[in-house]
Design a protein that fits this description.
Helix content: over 70%
Largest sheet: none
Distance between the termini: 86 Å
Number of strands: 0
Order of helices and strands: HH
Number of helices: 2
């Protein structure tokens, strides 16, 4: 839809420019008003796309930060478990030593 609107705006602009160069005044104002309305619609659609893209980017950045934090927490938990397991092995070996 956005591409169609742009083509309409472009064609109307070229038509208006051509008419003005030819010295035609009749109907030019109406074409300019029509072109301006289409231009506003086109800008509105483009703005909606930009905002949607920004919202998506912010969401994905937030999601990535949360996942990175969870990954860091998981890695820390794994280190703690490994450390605990290592401590249990050392204790087991110590208990097996003759006293």
């Amino acid at each position: 839809m956005s591409a169609e609107l742009f083509e309409q705006v472009k064609n109307l602009s070229l038509e208006v420019r051509s008419l003005i160069r030819q010295g035609v005044r009749e109907g030019v104002d109406e074409r300019i008003q029509q072109r301006n309305q289409l231009l506003q619609q086109w800008f509105s659609q483009i703005n909606d796309l930009i905002n949607l893209t920004n919202e998506q980017q912010v969401f994905l950045e937030t999601l990535l930060q949360e996942e990175q934090q969870l990954l860091t927490e998981l890695q820390q938990e794994q280190k703690n478990i490994a450390s605990h397991q290592s401590g249990k092995k050392k204790l087991s070996k110590y208990e097996q030593l003759p006293h």
